[in-house]
Specification:
heterodimer, A: about 400 residues, alpha+beta, two-stranded antiparallel ribbon, 14 helices, elongated, B: about 90 residues, four-stranded mixed β-sheet, 3 helices
Chain lengths: ~400, ~90
């Protein structure tokens, strides 16, 4: 009991002498942000407007990637207020905290309400006390330190600002999709379909398989994108995706040098046989609708399993896409475009087989080159995600 | 002149489909060459006999007139490389 009282007294004295909560006449808003964070950029614009309409408001800005002391201050606040400091933007008005920034209508509105309330009722500025030994930044950081050109291995010098998002989408999707060895289910389906006499059935079942596969991939990409949009720019997520890009890049380049033969590895017999048996029995069903439903379900199941193996590139791409300030419909248009390019080799193989009634393959040497180019690109993206994420903001 | 080539492939294997027209051309140009195709999924016995259970498809096994294996290739092989191998071993 005595120990508890001493402990409480100690905490009280500590807060009294060291934390120095200040009851400010004016309201101070503390804004923690990072370079390359689109949500922070959005909030920054909003805060400028807010300052114009509320002259009593002072905005103090703390950039966390270039100044470690700002991170330490943020951690201090997190500890002191038991606040969630897992990501930026992090905004503090008195004890009111906001993590992330969706848009002016939602988060912006809440921030404005908190500011109005603080102006009306006053609020204690915890941070000024905590940051007494730290000169906070009040100037707006200039984000125009992006160079005009960037040298990327194999690509040479590229104009950063002209390096468009559609081109990046095309390149990453091509790299992601161009894997002839991953087409084994489609090739098996084609072999079964070519044995049919009913050409109409053949076309419909094959198309249903490809469209369902594309839909699964589109939904998978959408899930990644929404996760990143929801998280905003949590620093460690960006770092993690940057590391994934470096590993994916290294793996692709390694594959170019190691897999010179270009054959397809023999994968798990049992799994393959099971899928083939199901595919054969589904396509041979007399009732067309049952066959169609079966092939759609099978395509969904097979592709969901395959997704686990190919999470890297979609995650990297959607992370970059989430940096861009785009209306929702444009995000999804990009994902549709990505899915189309991703499915391009499947479409070529399928249509060629259906028209010529002969199964054809794609030479793996092209796949090897795509691995080499894509690997170099991934390495570049990984480095940028880790050190210069703002260079990947295309929107 | 005698040479036999055992070709192991599968309908789901992209590389096997790439190799199909290459072998068709070679077989047309070298009618004395004996070739046999075995499906990896259905011809289990011979697949096991030649130990094709793991690794990469397609696999091509070159046999001499005593049915003895003289060379084994796997993956996508250029036509020129196959012709070179055939020319090298046809006199043996």
């Amino acid at each position: 009991m005595v120990q508890k009282i001493i402990q409480s007294l100690f905490i009280f004295v500590f807060i009294l002498f060291f934390a120095h909560p200040v009851f400010a006449a004016d309201v101070t808003l503390h804004f923690f942000w990072s370079n390359g964070c689109p949500h922070c950029a959005k909030e920054k614009v909003f805060l400028r407007t807010l300052q114009e309409t509320h002259p009593e408001l002072t905005v103090k800005e703390y950039e966390i990637t270039s100044d470690i002391s700002n991170v330490q201050l943020m951690e201090k606040i997190g500890k002191e207020l038991k606040a969630d400091i897992s990501g930026v933007p992090f905004t503090l008005i008195g004890k009111e905290q906001f993590v992330g920034y969706l848009n002016d209508e939602t988060t912006g509105k809440k921030i404005e309400e908190a500011v109005t309330c603080a102006i009306k009722n006053g609020c204690e500025d915890m941070v000024s006390g905590l940051a007494s030994n730290k000169n906070s930044q009040t100037s707006v950081h200039d984000m125009n330190d992006i160079p005009e050109t960037l040298t990327i291995p194999l690509f040479g010098q590229i104009q950063i600002r002209k390096f468009s998002l559609p081109f990046l989408t095309f390149l990453v999707a091509l790299l992601d999709g161009f894997n002839p060895c991953a087409m084994w289910t489609l090739l098996f389906l084609i072999s079964v379909l070519l044995g049919m006499k009913d050409r109409k059935r053949m076309w419909i079942l094959g198309t249903a398989f490809i469209v369902s596969s594309a839909l699964v991939y589109f939904l998978f990409l959408s899930a990644w994108l929404n996760l990143f949009l929801f998280l905003g720019v949590v620093v460690w997520v960006r770092m993690l995706i940057g590391l994934v890009a470096l590993v994916a890049g290294g793996y692709n380049i390694r594959d170019y040098f190691v897999n010179t033969q270009g054959g397809c590895a023999v994968m798990g017999n049992e799994k393959r046989q099971k899928i083939f048996e199901q595919m054969r029995s589904i396509t041979q069903r007399r009732q067309f609708l049952l066959a169609l439903g079966g092939i759609i379900l099978l395509a969904i199941a097979v592709n969901i399993v395959e997704l686990i193996c190919s999470a890297g590139l979609p995650a990297i791409y959607t992370k970059i896409l989430s940096f861009s300030h785009l209306p929702s419909w444009q995000y999804y248009l990009y994902l549709l475009f990505y899915t189309f390019i991703f499915m391009l080799d499947d479409l070529i193989i399928f249509f060629t087989a259906m028209v010529t009634l002969q199964a054809v393959g794609i030479q793996s040497k092209y796949s090897r080159f795509s691995h080499l180019i894509g690997g170099a690109l991934m390495l570049g993206i990984g480095i940028l995600l880790l050190f210069k994420p703002e260079w990947l903001m295309f929107g | 002149m005698y040479m036999k080539v055992l070709k192991f492939g599968a309908v789901w294997c992209n590389g096997c489909l790439v190799m199909r027209p290459r072998w068709a051309e070679i077989e047309k140009e070298h009618p004395w060459l004996k070739t046999e195709y075995y499906d990896f999924d259905t011809k289990k016995e011979i697949v096991r006999k030649y130990g094709i259970d793991s690794g990469v498809l397609p696999v091509f096994i070159f046999l001499d007139n005593n049915e003895k294996e003289i060379l084994r290739l796997s993956g996508e092989i250029e036509k020129e490389e196959l012709l070179r191998v055939i020319a090298e071993h046809e006199s043996k």
